[in-house]
Amino acid sequence: MKAIIKTIPLQMFWPTFDPFLFCAFHNDAYPAGNGKLGPNASLSGRQIGQDFSQKDGWSMYHGSKVPGFPAHPHRGFETVTVVNKGYVDHADSMGAAGRYGEGDTQWMTAGKGVQHSEMMPLVHTQKSNPLELFQIWLNLPSYNKMVEPHFSMLWKEDTPIATLRDENDKGIKIKVVAGSLNVDGSALQSLPCPPNSWANDKENHVAIWIIDLEVEASWTLPASVRDLSRTLYVFEGEQVQAEDSTVPVNVALQVKSDAPLAIKNTGSESVRILLLQGKPINENVEQHGPFVMNTRQELQQAFFDYQQTQFGGWRWPSSDQTHGETPRRFALYADGREETP
């Protein structure tokens, strides 16, 4: 049985399928910092506040001095932010904050409503500050859309990685951000996700993996159960061979979940692939900007509630809150507990 359903070219915002709502890939070649966490470069020619230009290989996004996304609201879904390179400074209306990156993941359940900011501090002043991250939106089922917000950190030091060799002694690494992977008869299980997440129920088979293949490395994605959404995003390298197709970088493969898929890196450099998989929620989705509900009436209520309550208000000095010039990773939780990796 052929596994590949179709191939899809990728741009900045990647196509996703239920239970996933959205995936943005940020790949910015930021220059050295200016000592204030912004770029040591002119911002002329950019539409500050709405800069997605990738001019000179990077964008300011909604930031005016520091790249990123100042305070904005969410309701009804989760954000999973996987940072491969660089750092993100988080602050939210629960009173939680943190700096994470260089392999960390932040998982936030917006639930009934939260404001947060996500700034991209350029902490290095003597060298460049490359940033590479995915932000994945995972839907919440109707019975969990109004749960209390939740913020958690999945530190890179604790995130399981399978290190394998194929029959030709070529290397394969699989980082298990969510879900489980069978390795030599044992399940490699991800760190716990938030309690009200669709991913928290193993019967939903949610998986978020990052797959690294050395040159000429071969690996077979194992079959799972039927009728899951399963998509592979080739985001770095040159190309892979999948079944009888040559798949270049910046292409997604939508595949059948109950069929194995043999993959080989046939390019001249290492390849990286993101896997998103999960059982569809199969509920109506009504979305407007940062709110994702099931009906138009619920969306209208979300806007009304935000106007009335600001989802707890903003507790920080600045809407583009950052956390200092030292590249120290930490998480400050709403209960006052602080954690470092």
UniProtKB/TrEMBL annotation:
Annotated coiled-coil segments of the chain: none
Instruction: Give the record's family classification.
Output: Belongs to the pirin family.
Which Pfam family would be a valid example here?
Answer: Pirin_C
InterPro entries noted in UniProt: Pirin, Pirin_C_dom, Pirin_N_dom, RmlC-like_jellyroll, RmlC_Cupin_sf
All copies of domain Pirin N-terminal, residue ranges = 59-138
Q: From the Swiss-Prot or TrEMBL record, give the protein name.
A: Pirin domain protein
Residue intervals of the Pirin C-terminal domain: 212-312
